[in-house]
Structure formats: C-alpha cells, structure tokens
Specification:
Layout (H helix, E strand, L loop, with lengths): L4 H6 L1 H10 L4 E2 H7 L5 H13 L4 E8 L2 E7 L9 H4 L4 H23 L22 H19 L24 H8 L5
C-alpha cells in the first residue's frame, strides 16, 4: 500500500528523521546516536521509506569496514505540505494531521524536560501563545516575515556554539465572530 505524502511526512519517527537531517548531511550511524530511543531496525526501515519516496536522498556512499556507509540529505528545503495539498481536507483529516504535529512536538518537549541537564534559562526554552487582531493582509505579511526570519537561520550548520532547537508554530483564527459580523459590530451597525 502506497502511503500519502502526509503519512510519510507526519509519521512520528520519519518526521524526527527529517528534522534531524534538515540543513546537513548525516549517516545512519549518526542518526542512530541522535535518536537513541528509536530501535535501529525501525530507524533503518523508516530511512529506507523516505529514500524510496524521494524525501531523503543518498548524497554519498563509501565503503567502511566492508559495509557501505550512506550519507543522507534532503533534496529540497521545502518539504512542508502545501496549501493545495490540504485545501480539500475534511475537518477529520485536519484534526488527524494536527494531532500528529502536536504529538511530535510533545515528544520533543517530553524528551527535553526528562533529560538530565534541563535548564530552561540557559536553553532559552519557551512556550507562548499570542492573540492579535490582524487583517488577512497583515496575517499574510506576518507569515512571510516569519518565513524570512526562519529561512535566514535554517541554513546554518552545526558546530561551534550552535545547538539544535525545535521551533513549532501554529496560527489559526480564534473561532470568534466571522469577519462579516465582526466588521458590522465594530462599525456600530450591529443589530
């Protein structure tokens, strides 16, 4: 059975693999060390699925002690699901995708807070929510601004004082009044 792009990308282990590879070249051995809670057989099986689907690519192969060592990278930086890919999703499908996203984020957070060296100040750990009143144009601009900021920092490689950070962002209307009603109320023409 062929998996959809959504299922390939949002599987908890595969998404962790993708995030681990993002912006660099890594071997399966390095991934094994970075994801010690993932059984090696599961890790290799999920790497193989991602390579077969074209989500990961083998960028180098070399013989190490009679074993072929492969180095992996992402073929392109934009693996996110596009608006077109989710435009026709049902509410149930959106909840499934969002639940997987939250589960992955919760997994990263849980591993962090249960680690032996937690220091939320030193680690710049935060979780926050912001409520803002924005027009469609303003929220569009905010999204472009965030993409610009993240793009500027996403290409930086490991090394020196750099540590990996996982940053998750969710944006949605609050679910309050629909725009037409809100404008009538704010304009003083509410009945």
């Amino acid at each position: 059975m062929n998996e959809s792009k959504e299922d390939l990308l949002l599987h908890p282990v595969r998404l962790r693999l993708i995030l681990s590879v993002a912006g660099r070249r890594v071997t399966a051995q390095q991934l094994t060390r970075e994801l010690p809670d993932v059984p090696q057989a599961s890790l290799y099986r999920n790497i193989r699925k991602l390579v077969t689907a074209g989500i990961l690519e083998v960028v180098e192969e070399r013989l190490v002690r009679n074993t072929m060592e492969r180095t992996f990278a992402l073929p392109n930086a934009n693996l996110l699901l596009t608006a077109e890919e989710v435009a026709n999703a049902s509410p149930k499908e959106h909840l499934r995708l969002f639940t997987r996203f939250l589960g992955l984020l919760l997994g990263y957070f849980s591993r962090y807070v249960h680690s032996a060296r937690v220091d939320v100040v030193r680690d710049h750990m935060m979780y926050r929510m912001f409520a803002m009143y924005l027009s469609d144009a303003e929220v569009g601009r905010l999204g472009r601004d965030l993409n610009e900021v993240f793009s500027r920092h996403a290409g930086k490689g490991a090394g020196g004082a750099r540590r990996r950070f996982v940053i998750g962002i969710v944006s949605m209307p609050d679910g309050g009044d629909p725009p037409q009603l809100a404008s009538k109320v704010n304009g003083g023409t509410s009945q």
